[in-house]
């Protein structure tokens, strides 16, 4: 009977020792886990990585876009202004809005996608890398028509038609001011970016005699 009691006491003591050791190991593991978490830097996505702005606003001359079918070339550019390489998945979507200052109800919306990129090779397997200072650009063309299909030159002022010749068989109207606004999503992690509004002056032109150059053959 005495030997049984001694065996039971030893078992209890062993159980207590094992319990204490397990508890000590758990506390030790928790301590080192907290120390590791404290030593690891927290990754924060930088907020100011890319700047975008309108860099080109070009009105084509009569040889490229004849009067009555005028056209403009616009370029939106972006630049990595962060001090490190930025490489992430892209989801390129956005728009450019061109509105007439004298008639704000007349505007044109141009949709931007990955196809708008001047150099599509920048995107590889759905990701784009930009080193500090590297730029990308997006081309777009505007035929001076509003979203509702109106050729805006038809609403511009060509008063004193016969005395406003500015080239052979070409009549010039009053110049008109427009504003370009752009917003663009490049990297989903960065969200939409907005370009500073840009103003430009458009010079309307039309042929006095449409059947003659530069309008006609």
Describe what this molecule looks like in 3D:
This protein is 18% helix and 40% strand. The model has no long low-confidence stretch (mean pLDDT 85). The strands form three sheets. Strands 3, 4, 5, 6, 10 and 11 form a six-stranded antiparallel β-sheet that branches. By secondary structure, it is α+β, with helices and mostly antiparallel strands. Strand 8 and strand 9 (170-172) form a beta hairpin. It is built from one helix and twelve strands, in the order H-E-E-E-E-E-E-E-E-E-E-E-E. It has one helix at 2-39, and strands at 50-59, 72-80, 86-100, 107-113, 123-124, 127-130, 135-142, 165-167, 170-172, 176-187, 192-202, 205-207. It folds into two domains: 1-42; 50-207, Immunoglobulin-like, CATH 2.60.40.10.
Which features does this protein show?
217 residues, alpha+beta, Immunoglobulin-like, 2 domains, 6-stranded antiparallel beta sheet, 3-stranded antiparallel beta sheet, 12 strands, elongated
Structure described in brief:
With 217 residues, the protein is of the alpha+beta class.
Mean pLDDT equals 85
Question: Runs with pLDDT <50, length 5+?
Answer: none
From the alpha carbons, calculate the radius of gyration and give it in angstroms: 34 Å
Strand content: 35-45%
Q: Mind telling me the CATH superfamily name of the largest domain? A: Immunoglobulins
Main β-sheet, in a few words? 6 strands, antiparallel
């Amino acid at each position: 009977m005495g030997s049984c009691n001694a065996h039971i006491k030893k078992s209890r003591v062993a159980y207590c020792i094992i319990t204490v050791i397990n508890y000590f190991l758990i506390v030790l593991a928790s301590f080192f886990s907290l120390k590791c978490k404290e030593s690891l830097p927290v990754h924060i996505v930088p907020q100011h990585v890319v700047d975008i702005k309108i860099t080109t606003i070009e009105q084509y001359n009569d040889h490229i876009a004849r009067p009555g079918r005028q056209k403009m070339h616009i370029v939106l550019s972006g630049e990595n202004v962060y001090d490190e390489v930025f490489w992430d998945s892209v989801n390129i979507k956005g728009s450019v809005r061109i509105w007439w200052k004298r008639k704000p109800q007349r505007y044109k919306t141009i949709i931007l996608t990955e196809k708008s990129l001047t150099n599509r090779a920048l995107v590889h397997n759905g990701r784009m890398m930009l080193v500090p200072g590297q730029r990308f650009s997006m081309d777009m063309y505007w035929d001076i028509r509003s979203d509702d299909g109106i050729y805006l030159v038809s609403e511009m002022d060509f008063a004193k038609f016969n005395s406003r010749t500015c080239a052979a068989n070409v009549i010039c109207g009053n110049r008109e001011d427009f504003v370009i606004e752009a917003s663009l999503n490049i990297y989903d992690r960065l969200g939409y970016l907005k370009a500073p509004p840009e103003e430009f002056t458009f010079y309307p032109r039309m042929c006095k005699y449409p059947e003659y150059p530069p309008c006609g053959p």
